[in-house]
Amino acid sequence: MGVLNEFFVLPFLDIAEAPLFFIEVIIGGLSAGVMYSLVALGFVLIFKASGVFNFAQGVLALFAALTLVGIMEWGVPAPVALLLTAAVMVGLAFAVERLVLRPLVNQEHIILFMSTIGLAYFLEGLGDTLWGSNVKKLDIGIPEQSFEIGGVLLNQFELVAAATAGTLVAVLAVFFHYTRVGRALRAVADDHQAALSVGIPLKTIWVIVWSVAGIVALVAGIMWGSKSGVQFSLSLIALKALPVLILGGFTSVPGAIVGGLIIGVGEKIGEVYWGPALGGAIENWFAYVLALMFLVFRPQGLFGEKIIERV
Amino acid sequence: MLYREAGQFKSSYGADQAVFPIAQDRWFIAAAAVFAFVVVPLIADDYWLQAILIPLLVYALAALGLNVLTGYAGQLSLGTGGFMAVGAYMSYKITTAFPELNIIVVFLFSGLFSAAVGIVFGLPSLRIKGFYLAVATLAAQFFLIWLFNKVGWFYNYNPSGTIDAPPRAMLGVLITGAEAQPEVKYLTALSLLSVFALLTKNLVRSSVGRAWMAIRDMDIAAEIIGIRPLRTKLLAFAISSFICGVAGAELFALHFGSVETLAFDINLSFLILFMVIIGGLGSILGSILGAAFMVLMPIALTNLFVGGLGMQAVTAKHTEFMVFGGLIIFFLIVEPHGLARLWQIAKEKLRLWPFPY
Amino acid sequence: MSQPQKKIGDTLLKVEDISLSFGGVKAISGVSFEIKEQEILAIIGPNGAGKSSMLNVINGFYHPQEGTITYKGEARHQMRPHNAAKQGIARTFQNIALFKGMSTLDNIMTGRLLKMRRNFLWQALYWGPALKEELAHRERVEQIIDFLEIQAIRKTQVGRLPYGLQKRVELGRALAAEPDLLLLDEPMAGMNVEEKEDMCRFVLDVNDEFGTTIALIEHDMGVVMDISDRVVVLDYGRKIADGSPDEVRGNKNVIDAYLGVSHD
Question: Are residues C167 and C199 in the same domain?
Fold first, then answer.
């Protein structure tokens, strides 16, 4: 009885007793969720265009943040440093396409997946070698005051983060739907061979997606890095973004966004209200279980269409 | 012209289905066995045994287990570390609860626990495939590690949070514990690996293995010819986790002697997966070659950077990471089908040697 | 072509009023026909007529929204593919569905999976009953390999075989199950004349020697008219004709369907 009580009664009583706190928890979850969405977005972009499950996405964010901090330490003003870092990420995209993807074209998915784990090791080592491995502070001047609306405590930083993520998604959506490159990208996502046969340059497309993913990683890296410092653990948000992919689907941009928010909120609520009953530190696996439970009811994910299998 | 099959005719299907149908192969294997079982324990020093050979054999067993699931049944798993942890922690619980029980039996029982856990976490494989499943297996990885960390019962409420291998003997010879001879540990690991490699080889050339490969190559067609997907996949999960569980128990009791959950974190899962891919998906020999490669390469790199180039240990660590990542990519590009494929090509060449065609 | 007199028996499988749609798109609407024991039935029709969908319904891969299937006297609304296989329905596919990473021998051996009884523990030992069983089935499979004249590619990985041979291996895998009803989805598509003749011979031989009932989809009218006992014609998901090859050849609806008279 005591256990049942702890799992099925007490948490709800807590919620009912302090609704304002519950709203704060949700807002906290949303702000973490935005991060997950951003990282998941990087995954989705690359998976859509090249079928590669890019495990290095988290390390990409770390590497971007490290590079930004490193450049700023030379005394370069923040806006210039941002541009320089973005340029580095584009350069990295070229290098990845030339040195990793092109030689591995037409290999099985698992081989490409493993090569991105190799890439993750490489970038981690490279970042540490270039910029050192101690925790760094990242401050590009995002305001951090807290304020109150109707009894709910809010933080400017979180609003800025949400706004940035929202803008980024909007820009990407426009890019995907209304530009020539975007159309080519969707064609490639649908069928590589067919896209090649109508003359879409696969290599260029890959460089573009990896560049975009690199810049998305940079944004995620800045957000996360400003909040809790730039260090190795930053690359671990990739692991947090993976359940988002199960939930939203590997190929759906809206899925990544909404999935990220759901996971962020679900995780926060689980941690605050059910964490104590489970002995705490559940954040490592809770999101996965949440995503798996969701899959049982909707195997095609949030925005996926039911696939008609053919033989 | 030393290695060829001309003139070796088979008069029965039985002979044609032997593990090593070619006589030269049988000789080679016999020689390798003698070398591994007799010569190595005589000539290898403690460093070689403890730092290289024992982990190599243990990892090879884990790679064999993962290869059943990923290489043969086609189900990508990132939860190997978690399943190995089940083996390690259950072997600790069993051997401390029943000190009289033979340690090999303990290993096998902990494998059974691991198999049961594997079945539970294999259930999603009915509905999800590919990378979705891989991510789902991460749930096993994180949840199991959390569980063994959180619940004191699993480590007998040891204040340090570690589990320590108690001394256990078989036929009067110590196998586990700090006092046990490295040679004995080596031979135990080698024997277990040999037995499991043979049993796995048998499985994959029987109808169970064919059902696995059918699911791997085309699951819809497999279902239409009457293979039941869930049962087949769950059996693969069970057998794979069983083997990984035994490997986990060995990693704890034979190699480390004392471990905490950190030893079984996600990096272990990746390490084993690398062994399988670099060794060769769907190859028993590949699992062993892959393990050898992944154990030897970092040691060689460290020796090169610290010993050879005189780098600082920290810088060397970072550089090692880079080179390690780079080498993996390089290797995947050069031979995506793994070391086992290289071995096969070498044999094809040898068959014609010294003539070019 | 004069064929040896065959004993065409009772109804083996009967589909009644089958309707199947995918999210609003009707693939099959209200189709009924019978397959009689020991006959060779051809299902023909223009592309998109619902022929493959019909085979998928028969072996339980698609589940029709309406209608019943009566197989061996037992009526049911739908069937799991696994059960269909168990009850003796085997098939080949339009776009070859072999297990590409396995050898010819192993592929055909998978066709016998349902007949192998030893559990995995015996198989892990590869000894005693398991070995005996394996060898007994190997022998049956070797007979099929001989029958299809593919001895030379026994141990070749099927992914490396040319198209025509892959089709043959796929037929071998279906035959290995010793089916009562064999469904062939365009067994001769993409073959040259010689390969087609070989395949026709195999189909007729299977029907003659083993008494297997065969339902096949084929576009080559010459082949259809030559080897089938009866022809069912589908167009736009409906049955428009059903009868002997000669009857169908003269049917006005059929001629219209193939020559493209507008549908209103």
Answer: no
